[in-house]
Amino acid sequence: MRNAIPVLTVLVVLVGLWWAAVAPMNIRPALDLAERGGAVIVPEGSVQRREVSVWTLMLKNSSHVSAGYDLKRPRLPTPAQVGQEIWKTTGAMVLKGRTWSKRSLIYHSWITLQSTLWGFLLGTSLGILGAVAITYSRVTSMSLMPWAIISQTIPIVALAPMIIVVANQVGVEGRGVPKAIISAYLCYFPVLVSMVKGLNSPKPAELDLLKTYNASGTQSFWKLRLPASLPYFFTSLKVGVAAALVGTIVGELPTGAISGLGARILIGDQFGTPLAIWSALFLAAILAGLLVTFVDTMQRVTLRKMGFRA
Amino acid sequence: MTNNTIVSAKDLSLTFQTNDGPVHALSDVNLDIEKGDFVSFIGPSGCGKTTFLRVMADLEQPTGGEITVNGVSPREARLARAYGYVFQAAGLYPWRTIGGNIRLPLEIMGYSKADQAERVSRVLELVDLAGFEKKYPWQLSGGMQQRASIARALAFDADILLMDEPFGALDEIVRDHLNEQLLKLWADTGKTIGFVTHSIPEAVYLSTKIVVMSPRPGRVTDVIESPLPKERPLDIRDTPEFLEIAHRVREGLRAGHSYD
Ligand SMILES: Nc1ncnc2c1ncn2[C@@H]1O[C@H](COP(=O)(O)OP(=O)(O)OP(=O)(O)O)[C@@H](O)[C@H]1O
Ligand SMILES: [Mg+2]
What we know:
The complex is a heterodimer.
Chain A: H1 4-36, H2 46-49, H3 54-60, H4 79-89, H5 91-95, H6 105-136, H7 138-151, H8 156-169, H9 176-199, H10 204-212, H11 217-252, H12 261-270, H13 274-306
Chain B: E1 5-18, E2 21-34, E3 38-42, H1 49-56, E4 64-69, H2 74-79, E5 83-86, H3 98-109, H4 113-126, H5 142-154, E6 160-164, H6 172-189, E7 192-197, H7 200-206, E8 209-214, E9 219-225, H8 240-256
Parallel strand pairs in B: 3-7, 3-8, 5-6, 6-7
Antiparallel strand pairs in B: 1-2, 1-4, 8-9
The complex binds adenosine-5'-triphosphate (ATP) and magnesium ion.
């Protein structure tokens, strides 16, 4: 409960700022609409108003500011509008029994979540395997690490369409597999870096101890390096799962995708419906929050069970 | 060198190459340790006590001279699991219980489950930690952790026990108690023990042989064979023989110490 108060305070401040920003963001379309409805606006005409700052417009036409909070196609929707839109596309859909319809964001979130989890699984496995290879072989350490770093300097937005095209060329149907690959591509790197650090975290004295027992490499891996790396591993999972979600959404952006939160964002952009973009963005954020919270809980339970001081 | 010689060092030297130039941690060390000896290493900080123990255990490679352990190289002795080593810091694994930590060498060396359990409870008893088997290291005081690390080195059958200031962090009472128990254990098992300490009474009370060392370069300045009997009650420390040896150790330490 004590943790909730600062979090809630920040939330209230953010929503307040957002709400205040609606007025200047929406004043121009609000004035255009009012003018078309016959109201007298200073200065007259949309083109003339472009020369005037939003603050002046708000001062001179103060009676029309409130109209900006009730636009059908706002530049910046109000928190309440976004809330209503999210409810319309999630809770209301469930009530109407249309949870899995194409207009339900629950359906699109589920599509995104699936790819995210596959990508997360794939990326995490690759990250762990890479880290083990790097830790146990100088050759892979020198050959693999530079490529891992280079791979992260390529903008994923540029790479994503290529991965989709190549996947289609080799006969993979649908978007699921290429999306998971893009997601894994973003997710493996933090896991790799943290696991290399974690597997090398045992102190020299701890390694010396095993040496006096004449322990084999496999034994020192399972009994020392791996357990010692777990705190690092979980920390990297939190970054990794968020990266996997971003990867999936990017994989849904290139034209052609029709389902998934990324596709909703793109469609909202093409059809000029900011409300659709905003509600999809919020669902993505909620999804990310849930995933990170889940990993965090797993971390706490596992580490406590293992006897690490919580 | 006799048939019973466990460790034999001849002109042993070890120089560390550091950024500030070479450090002569050991210089021309000659030392024989017989089977069943209790050898204490005493000397000021930095005189190479830890380094010599580490060379014996094949954790450090000498740069000159020769050393054999059980008649073979330290490496071969290590591969034959000839040592139990107690490090200066307890070094328990935080994700293992006290029992789990003691079981670690037993698991690695492939002892049976039943044997493991029996040994764990026996050595816990030995170091007065019975009942702490299921506790985690952070739930124990520093002294208790150190005792657990001693138990870990006693759990398997190594002939040679190397201990680097194992009781350095303990209070006087516990220390006396553990000294007594260590002597008893040594008498019962016939292990050969190498023991580093900064305490003159402790060295004299425990040892059959006291190696006095001095720094820069690290070398052996005196080797004192103790005439004390094997049976040693705590109050032997008030006898004239005891005080005489303690005096000789102190003289040796003073002679090796250059006040330049
Ligand atoms: N790995 C290393 N690299 C460089 N120098 C080292 C290394 N280990 C030890 N030394 C140096 O070798 C010398 C002997 O060190 P050692 O640890 O053996 O001393 P010690 O007698 O055990 O001291 P203390 O009583 O403080 O534990 C010191 O001068 C130390 O700085
Ligand atoms: Mg030392």
